[in-house]
Structures are given as C-alpha cells and as structure tokens.
UniProtKB/TrEMBL annotation:
It comes from Fermentimonas caenicola. Residues 10-80 form the MIP18 family-like domain. It holds the Pfam family FeS_assembly_P. This is MIP18 family-like domain-containing protein. InterPro entries: Fe-S_Maturation_MIP18 (IPR052339), FSCA_dom_sf (IPR034904), MIP18-like (IPR002744). The lineage of its organism: Bacteria, Pseudomonadati, Bacteroidota, Bacteroidia, Bacteroidales.
Length: 105
C-alpha cells in the first residue's frame, strides 16, 4: 500500500473509532465489527462489517453513522458497506483495549 492510501486508511480507522453501538460503550472498530477496509485507485471505499448479533436493534443507526462519517473524509469518493455474518462475530474479535474497557481482562 502506498503512502497516500495508507494515510487515507489511517484516517478511516480514526473515523471508525468514533462509531459506537449505542448499547455497548466501545467503538465498533475495537469491538471487531469491521472485517476489512478496501480502498480502490479512485478512493472508493468498501467496508466489510458485521454486528454483534444479526438481530442488532441499532443496525440502521450504526450503518448510517459509519456511512456518514467515512464519507465526510475529504479524500473519500464513495463508501460501500457490505454487511456479513460470515464469520459470525464473537468476543475473540475484540481488541485488548475493548476487553479491558468492558472489564473482561
């Protein structure tokens, strides 16, 4: 990945860390809900993500929050969100920081 794409990737991660599931006091990136962030040569961003549960009551809110925040980055041309439940989310996907914040360490 070249320096410009890496810088944009870093900005996207910073922005994703401002997105929260309203029921969990940890951002969705550290919760492990973001599986992949792909940026093409035209700065179109594709984010593969999941929810902690397929029946997540905050799903629409979270998707809209991710879409709006990542689109707000000046260099981003467009954002495509791919929602998947394969593999299903589990607690092992959380960062150590998330586990610590939730009292699991």
């Amino acid at each position: 990945m070249n320096e410009e794409l890496q810088a944009l990737q870093d900005k996207i991660v910073v922005m994703l860390r401002t997105c929260y599931d309203p029921e969990i006091p940890v951002n969705i990136y550290d919760l492990g809900m973001i599986y992949d962030v792909d940026i093409d040569e035209n700065n179109n961003v594709t984010i593969e993500m999941t929810f902690t549960s397929p029946a997540c009551p905050a799903a629409d809110f979270i998707l809209m929050d991710v879409q709006m925040k990542v689109e707000s980055i000046e260099e981003v041309n467009s954002v495509n969100l791919n929602l998947t439940f394969d593999p299903p989310w589990d607690q092992s996907m959380m960062s150590e920081e998330a586990m610590l914040e939730l009292g699991m360490l």
